[in-house]
Amino acid sequence: MIAAIIQARMSSSRLPGKVLLPLLGRTMLEHVVERVRRAPVDRVVVATSNETEDDAIAQLCATKNYDVFRGSKDDVLDRYYRAAIAYDCDDIVRVTSDCPLVDPAVLGELISSYRTSEYDYLSSFVPAERTFPRGLDCEIFSFRALEDAARHARETYEREHVTPYIWENKEGKFAVGPMLIASAAYAHPEFRLTVDYDEDYDLMRHLYERFYKEGEIVSTPHVVEYLSTHPEVTAINAFRDEEYPKQGIRKK
């Protein structure tokens, strides 16, 4: 079974509570779940912490009948591992909850490549390199690799960011495949389609107000096409990318 696990927490240092911020009547997390459900996955699980501050996320999941797992706040690797055990996952797609334009088609392409290979790990980015806009980051890896990482990863960053122990592959344990390359419809790595700062949220509200229709999801290629011809819109949050680490892994 391939399960998508979406990590979510309320205590973001830059924009606290961002995963429950509204976008046209729904929370950002609801939009992320809806989009991931349209990918070829067997289950979608929200993985949050067992801290009181994240009760609101668990309550939303209960109200919406989402699968949810609660675990360590800071050891996100352990949270993923225990969530994968709880939901009997064979393979895991990792998505973060601050990406309300995560694209089901990109997830599908990544999953298809994984299914037809013998890799333990594939992703749409590598640290300091990307061909997709920031916010379309996704990874897929085997439970075997996740379990090995959970048991042997020791560095703080390895525990916080879930997959570095796998993709760094320092001991050559894993079969790590090549990075997924964006097609022309997505190939604008300079765009920020994630929500880390107020300006990111301002941009996302603008995009949802322009493109969202009830019962549908916003087309990411349409957004990319629009941004490519409206530099004044991309300027809303473009400067924030200079302040952010040039990598694909972020703590949630």
What does this structure look like?
This protein has helices at residues 28-37, 55-64, 76-86, 104-115, 143-152, 156-160, 164-168, 198-211, 220-228, 231-234, 240-243, and strands spanning 2-7, 22-23, 26-27, 43-49, 67-71, 91-96, 121-123, 125-126, 129-130, 139-142. The protein is an alpha/beta fold and 252 residues long. The chain has a single domain (2-243), classed as Spore Coat Polysaccharide Biosynthesis Protein SpsA, Chain A. The strands form three sheets. It has a six-stranded mixed β-sheet with strand order 5-4-1-6-10-7, sandwiched between helices. The longest helix is centred in the C-terminal third of the chain and has 14 residues, at 198-211. It is globular.
Brief digest:
By secondary structure, the protein is of the alpha/beta class.
Please identify, by name, the CATH architecture. Answer: Alpha-Beta Complex
CATH topology grouping: Spore Coat Polysaccharide Biosynthesis Protein SpsA, Chain A
Shape: globular
Estimated share of beta-strand residues: 15-25%
Instruction: Please provide the count of β strands.
Output: 10
By secondary-structure content and strand pairing, the structural class works out as alpha/beta
Q: What is the CATH class name?
A: Alpha Beta
Tally of alpha and pi helices: 11
The helix content is 25-40%
Strand order of the largest sheet: 5-4-1-6-10-7
**Domain module tally:** 1
Q: Show unreliable segments.
A: 244-252
Compute the gyration radius: what is it?
17 Å
Order of helices and strands: EEEHEHEHEHEEEEHHHHHHH
Please state the average pLDDT score.
94
In CATH terms, the superfamily is: Spore Coat Polysaccharide Biosynthesis Protein SpsA, Chain A
